Amino acid sequence: METKIIYFTMNGRPEQAEFPLDCPAQDVKDLFRSAAEAGPHDILKLYNPKGNIINISPNLEPNSPQSRYKLEVVAADCNSAELAGALGFDLSSMEKRLQDLEKKILIEAGETPAVVYEMKKQVDSFREKLESVEHLSWLGLFKDLSEGTHKPSPFYHKRTLRKTREECEHVQEKFLQMSSLEVSEEVRQYLKTPNFDNWQWEDAEIMVLLQVMYTDLDFIATFTIESDILQRFLFEVYRRYNNIPFHNFKHCFCVTQMMYGLIWLTDLRRKMDGIDLLIMLTSAVCHDLDHTGYNNAYQINARTELALRYNDISPLENHHCAVAFEILEKTESNIFRNLPMDQYKRIREGIIKCILATDMTRHNEILNKFKSILPAFDFANKDHKDVLMMILIKVSDISNEARPMEVAEPWLDCLLQEFFNQSDVEKLEGLPVTPFMDRDKVTKPSSQTGFIRFVLLPLFMELANLFPCLEQHIIDPVRKALDYYTEMEKALEREKQNRAQSENAAKSKETAVGMQSSADSHSDAGPEPSTPGNTFKD
């Protein structure tokens, strides 16, 4: 078998990777991830000797020990990094290696030995113990457990992981250094597709890509947006997204990039005014600003400041809007400052309408409205366009499953982490536990199959009724994702049944051994003495 050898350094340490020429892309990425001892969601970058980022794939150019590439972990999961530092190892890495071991054994032996089940049980148990301490300290809970049975107050102080000043200054400096670089045409075209892999880009680079979107849609010239004001706006947006597992700056970028891709794929530049496109792109950028990692149900049940301020009506979405216009109120970050008042009012109204549409409690209302106007949809009708804009940001917001599985699946892991964080706090505070967030009831595939079948596909298919070209770009991948998680769910169920059968067989064996031991002890003791009424025959 013909192989390829890649020479590189990791933390100054010389390494080499060897893999077959036909090796799948994910296996190559996993190979480099193992070399970096990186967690499953850590972001890796490979640099050539000139310092340019190159894609980690089977198509890597072979090199020599004298021209090594440099491998870096540019963004590490905060939980795994802290735990790894404190414990001396990475629990996520251990779990990943255990999964790889199980796969190899399954291929070779056809079944999973009991010893692997036992190892998995021990790792799960260890994680559970860690989460009872580290997990809650990550959430920033400062609870006095000496209160006994006193019902917890819904106003416990929580520390959202906001970005530090040092972190922001570092990223801002890198962004400003990169902001004048000319992005290649290849990347510009790639940016217009749903296949774009966000995990290959760090935050400063992401801001450069957002700048490219505003430039290539002609917003800079059309709406007189100065480059330094746009850069300050993007940095302020970056600063106001928190370091939480899912609703973070990278999620903001993914939603914006999908919106950008949909604008190009559906040729909306010919069908809608530029100001409407500006509203949609900026709404996507701002749609989850200062998200705390706890959804509206939690905000309302816990009677948080946001719920009280907005009277339980879409507290998060109202807050995202408020933070967006707080940024836009500052002259140095107001990208709309050169527009006449009537245009600014139109933009403000449109952004608020779009961001409020991302509240999933309004899903059926908005989808049914779109379905009702679809047969006679008219791009000249403002009401029709307003509903379409809401549909487009909704599609963009929940579009991860339309991406390649190697991009989408890590996002699901991040989402479940945030869900489980919330349900843990709900239990701790004596609040109603959101069912689809309960780590004791939800599995990875079960969280997706129903959501894809009853929420994603119906929404995406209605949009494709207006734009048939989207069938291959976003609906086919979502159907594949549904098949993938359906098969995963069946495999988990089979594994559960096999485990139950193994445990029952083990119990039966123990019972049989116990009965045999009992019989042997009776036999050793000799025949029982006769009692009145007993008759013995020779």
Automatic annotation (TrEMBL):
The positions flagged as active site in the entry are H247
The free-text cofactor remark is: Binds 2 divalent metal cations per subunit. Site 1 may preferentially bind zinc ions, while site 2 has a preference for magnesium and/or manganese ions.
A Pfam family recorded for this sequence? PDEase_I
- Residues binding Zn(2+) 2: D288
The biological process GO terms on file are: signal transduction
- According to its UniProt record, which reaction does this protein catalyse? 3',5'-cyclic GMP + H2O = GMP + H(+)
Q: Which cofactor does it need?
A: a divalent metal cation
**Presence of the UniProt keyword Metal-binding in the record:** yes
Q: Which SUPFAM superfamilies match?
A: HD-domain/PDEase-like
Q: What is its EC number?
A: 3.1.4.-
Determine if Hydrolase is one of this entry's keywords: yes
Organism domain of life? Eukaryota
Spell out where the chain crosses the membrane: none
Instruction: Report keywords, A-Z.
Output: cGMP, Hydrolase, Metal-binding
Annotated ranges, domain PDEase: 164-492
Q: In which pathway does it act?
A: Purine metabolism; 3',5'-cyclic GMP degradation; GMP from 3',5'-cyclic GMP: step 1/1
Region called Disordered, residue ranges: 493-538
Residues given in the record as AMP binding sites: H247, N248, F249, K250, H251, D288, D397, Q448
- For this protein, what is any one GO molecular function term? metal ion binding
Q: Give me the residues that bind Zn(2+) 1, please.
A: H251, H287, D288, D397
> Which family, according to UniProt?
Belongs to the cyclic nucleotide phosphodiesterase family. PDE9 subfamily.
Q: What does this protein do?
A: Specifically hydrolyzes the second messenger cGMP, which is a key regulator of many important physiological processes. Highly specific: compared to other members of the cyclic nucleotide phosphodiesterase family, has the highest affinity and selectivity for cGMP. Specifically regulates natriuretic-peptide-dependent cGMP signaling in heart, acting as a regulator of cardiac hypertrophy in myocytes and muscle. Does not regulate nitric oxide-dependent cGMP in heart.
Q: Can you name this protein?
A: Phosphodiesterase
